[in-house]
Specification:
Elements lengths: L7 H6 L4 H14 L8 E6 L2 E8 L2 H15 L4 E7 L5
Parallel strand pairs: 2-3
Antiparallel strand pairs: 1-2
Helix pairs in contact: 2-3
């Protein structure tokens, strides 16, 4: 299976389930040691991936979006994450 922006619509229309897409993105987020993904939720709305929840570092937003975009394409990722930075 090839990931990338050019084949998401095709896979989705061929029965690639939302649950499988969510699981793939969650696994990619969990596997990245540089992202605190414990408070990031991944949901699907049709072919669009919604990234919701909280991030604790500004760089986490960009990394989470980039990982999801590698799987479903940048145009299919919608960021709804909120910033919750620890006091310094």
């Amino acid at each position: 299976m090839k990931f990338g922006p050019n084949n998401h619509e095709e896979r989705f229309s061929q029965g690639h389930s939302s649950a499988a897409t969510v699981a793939t993105i969650e696994a990619a987020l969990s596997a990245d040691p540089d992202i605190d993904s414990s408070a990031i939720e991944v949901r699907m709305l049709g072919p669009v991936v919604l990234l919701e929840g909280y991030i604790t570092k500004p760089a986490d937003r960009d990394k989470a979006i980039a990982l999801a975009a590698m799987i479903v394409g940048e145009e299919n990722v919608h960021d709804r994450m909120l910033s919750r930075f620890p006091p310094q």
